[in-house]
Amino acid sequence: MTINQRILVVDDDEQLLNVYRNILEPRAKQVSALAMFTDEVEVEPVGLERAFELATALQGVDAVTLVEQSLVDNRPFAVAFVDIRMPPGIDGLETARRIRDLDDRIYIIFVTAYSDRGVDEIQQTIQHDVLLTRKPLTRDEILQLAHNACNRWTQDQQLVNRQLSLEQQVQEHAIARLSMESLVSSLSEGLVVCDAGGMITSSNPAAAAMSRYDEEDILGMSVGGLFPDLVMEDLLSRVQAQGAQQNLSCQLLCGDGAQLPVLLSASAILSVAAHGRAQGSQTACAFVLVWRGLGEN
């Protein structure tokens, strides 16, 4: 993610705005010929220092308008340097409050020579990501504040984007699961899922109806209890080694003791092998067994 380097400066002193421009706007690196000759600095190709994109306003209402436009353009500011006293308009605290109402992400750095606004009042009004500094600031202090705020804004947005992506994935998985559950429930064939040890972990309504068990009773049963004429351990091993096994003729042992002839198919749900096995190998974490009555289409 590209670092957001958009900075807003609000101060009623045009000379101070020019100071910010001289410090933050891009300019060519300068290396004196004497320094290069005496090898006092590491010689680099002439280029640009890290370039911030600067917008300035003399009054608070103008700054609020700039923030509104930045959101319309989808080019938000990362940080705002805000003077406290800016007559005749709204002061810096009110300016910052209105900016925050528009964009909760922006970092606020108050720069003032006065103490008429206390830390507690500022914190209560702005809530978070706010800093109070005193004039005059040095060039290095302004640069460091700008770098840190822009980097932090970008890191915060990366975290937000990751969280949104995870939430979207969870939502997509939930929708897919509901769709699959709906599909499985509508099947006329019996279906059970068992773990690698053969214990049934889920089933569909048709499985309960055909086997004459309650759905709750099927869960936790050994799948071998439903199909006693098959050596279930051997079947699951074949599925793991050879792939799906189709249309196996066997008997379904029902809950009332009756036996029904069925055609059974079995397949594996695969997962990447546990750490320590060959890279890229897979192992069965569960098995799906589907059956229908013999003679059904």
TrEMBL record:
<dbReference type="InterPro" id="IPR050595">
    <property type="entry name" value="Bact_response_regulator"/>
</dbReference>
<dbReference type="InterPro" id="IPR000014">
    <property type="entry name" value="PAS"/>
</dbReference>
<dbReference type="Pfam" id="PF00989">
    <property type="entry name" value="PAS"/>
</dbReference>
<dbReference type="InterPro" id="IPR013767">
    <property type="entry name" value="PAS_fold"/>
</dbReference>
<feature type="modified residue" description="4-aspartylphosphate">
    <location>
        <position position="83"/>
    </location>
</feature>
<dbReference type="InterPro" id="IPR001789">
    <property type="entry name" value="Sig_transdc_resp-reg_receiver"/>
</dbReference>
<dbReference type="GO" id="GO:0006355">
    <property type="term" value="P:regulation of DNA-templated transcription"/>
</dbReference>
<dbReference type="Pfam" id="PF00072">
    <property type="entry name" value="Response_reg"/>
</dbReference>
<feature type="domain" description="PAS">
    <location>
        <begin position="176"/>
        <end position="251"/>
    </location>
</feature>
<dbReference type="InterPro" id="IPR011006">
    <property type="entry name" value="CheY-like_superfamily"/>
</dbReference>
<dbReference type="GO" id="GO:0000160">
    <property type="term" value="P:phosphorelay signal transduction system"/>
</dbReference>
<protein>
    <submittedName>
        <fullName>Putative PAS/PAC sensor protein</fullName>
    </submittedName>
</protein>
<feature type="domain" description="Response regulatory">
    <location>
        <begin position="6"/>
        <end position="150"/>
    </location>
</feature>
<dbReference type="InterPro" id="IPR035965">
    <property type="entry name" value="PAS-like_dom_sf"/>
</dbReference>
<keyword id="KW-0597">Phosphoprotein</keyword>
